Every structure is written in C-alpha cells, then in structure tokens.
C-alpha cells in the first residue's frame, strides 16, 4: 500500500508563548517495513534535524517572541512493504549508524513498569515462551483487560494506571504490552505511527508494540494490541522508544502559553 499523509497540529494560547523549544518525531524513516518516497516537516522558525539513539528522525525548533498560535505540519508519501501475517523483521542499523542493543528495551520505565497484578496477568500467556502465537494471545488478553475507550486517560498515564483502570486508548494498550513483556525479560519497545482505516470519519495517531523475538539477530515482530494483530499494510511507523515519552510526535517546553488548546487533523489517502 502507498499512502499520501497530511498531519497538521495547531496550538492556540490565551496567553502568548514568550519562548518555546520543541522536539518533533514526525518524519518516518525507510526500513524493513516501509519506504518513504517524499516527506516534509514545517514549523515556525528554522528546523534542525538529526537522528536519536533509536534511529528516529527528529526535528527541533525554537519559538522566540510572543506567539498566540503555533502550527506544525508533516506531509509526504510512504509505501508500506509489510505483509499480513509477517512473522518478524530484522531491524538493523544503516551502514555507519550505531543503534542501541535490543537488550536496552528490557529495563522498565516509570510509564511501563509492571506491578505484581500485571505480571500475574501476563504470566499464563508467556509461561511457555514468547513465540508469535503467545504474543498475539497476550495482545488479545490485554485488549480485553484494558478496553479501548477514548478520553479516560492522557499522555501521562502509565501502563500500571491504565491496567488498574481497565480502559484507555492505543497508547495505554501498547504500553501495557511493552511493560508485560519486559517484566519477563523480553525486549519490547513502543511504536508511534498511523493506522489507515478507510471507514473512519476522523483519523488520529496510533501506537503499537515491537517485541524482540531474537536479540542476537535483531529479529522483531510488531503487534497492534488495539486491533489484535501483527502489523500489516495499514500501519505506517513514525518513531520507536522505550515508552510514549521517548517516541512522542511532539514535545515542548514553554515560557508563557497559558490556556493552551490543540487541534489535530490527519488525512491519509491511498495512491495507485
């Protein structure tokens, strides 16, 4: 599948921003599951770009002077090469690029730490190992235990909190999956991206989990807990991280800027 994507985020402030520093992870990279044919990110001021330790493309910009409105746009074309039921992929760094070991994704973070109750829930699924059927069964169990329900959590909600609450969104379901795997010594990472649903009236950012099947070879599988499946031609990857905080599409620190409102518009169209 080949997609044309347009992602616009507009922040408005009752009190103008005096100064702001922003970090964006809004540009997908070409890899084993997709090819990026064109992409552009625009924001106020000059953008600088780099790669972080996970291989993500990041952009930074600074807002100086009073600003009551900040608009960020990311747009381009991506061809997804993943196929339905793909059991795994080798995520190796580009030539001359260093990448952290999969074992780095075993340690918990405050957003993915698994309390005893969560570990007890995951244990029956992972008792015999973590092959793909076991991981898909765990994802199905999590989707039933943390039911999808909008507006019950926020970006600061931890996996433990969502598990206790029993509801959340794709971010929460993905972090519970990541936390459950890590609790049993299985490397897992959080993935941010897009999910193409032609029937949806409004599209939003999506999240799922990568789970490492073989750390020595760098063999991963990518599982969408919300849709209870291995990722396929509907998924476009943006960034990976240890949790939402390290893979968030937009992060910023502001002086001023009280009374913030945010409007996000995502359009995804298929291309021949």
UniProtKB/TrEMBL annotation:
SUPFAM superfamilies in the record: Cysteine proteinases (SSF54001)
Q: Which residues form the Transglutaminase-like domain?
A: 162-227
Source organism, top-level taxon: Bacteria
Q: Cross-referenced InterPro entries, in alphabetical order?
A: Bac_transglu_N (IPR013589), Papain-like_cys_pep_sf (IPR038765), Transglutaminase-like (IPR002931)
Q: Which GO terms describe its biological process?
A: proteolysis
Query: What's a single GO MF annotation on this record?
Result: peptidase activity
UniProt keywords, alphabetically:
Hydrolase, Protease
Name used for this protein in its record? Transglutaminase-like putative cysteine protease
Organism encoding this protein: Cupriavidus plantarum
Species lineage: Bacteria, Pseudomonadati, Pseudomonadota, Betaproteobacteria, Burkholderiales
């Amino acid at each position: 599948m080949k997609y044309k994507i347009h992602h616009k985020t507009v922040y408005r402030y009752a009190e103008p921003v005096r100064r702001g520093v922003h970090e964006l992870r809004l540009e997908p990279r070409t890899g084993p599951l997709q090819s990026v044919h064109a992409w552009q990110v625009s924001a106020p001021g000059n953008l600088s770009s780099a790669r972080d330790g996970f291989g993500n493309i990041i952009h930074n910009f600074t807002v100086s002077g009073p600003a009551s409105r900040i608009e960020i746009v990311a747009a381009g074309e991506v061809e997804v090469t993943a196929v339905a039921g793909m059991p795994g992929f080798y995520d190796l760094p580009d030539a001359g690029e260093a990448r952290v070991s999969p074992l780095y994704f075993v340690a918990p973070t405050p957003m993915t730490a698994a309390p005893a109750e969560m570990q007890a829930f995951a244990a029956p699924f992972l008792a015999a190992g973590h092959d793909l059927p076991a991981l898909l069964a765990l994802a199905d169990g999590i989707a039933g235990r943390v039911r999808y329900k909008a507006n019950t959590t926020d970006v600061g909600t931890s996996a433990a909190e969502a598990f206790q609450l029993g509801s959340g969104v794709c971010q929460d379901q993905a972090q519970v999956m990541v936390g459950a795997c890590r609790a049993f010594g299985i490397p897992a990472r959080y993935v941010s991206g897009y999910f193409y649903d032609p029937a949806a009236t409004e599209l939003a950012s999506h999240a799922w989990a990568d789970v490492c099947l073989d750390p020595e070879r760098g063999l991963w599988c990518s599982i969408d807990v919300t849709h209870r499946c291995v990722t396929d031609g509907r998924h476009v990857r943006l960034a990976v991280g240890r949790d939402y905080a390290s893979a968030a599409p937009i992060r910023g620190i502001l002086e001023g800027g009280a009374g913030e409102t945010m409007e996000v518009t995502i359009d995804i169209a298929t291309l021949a």
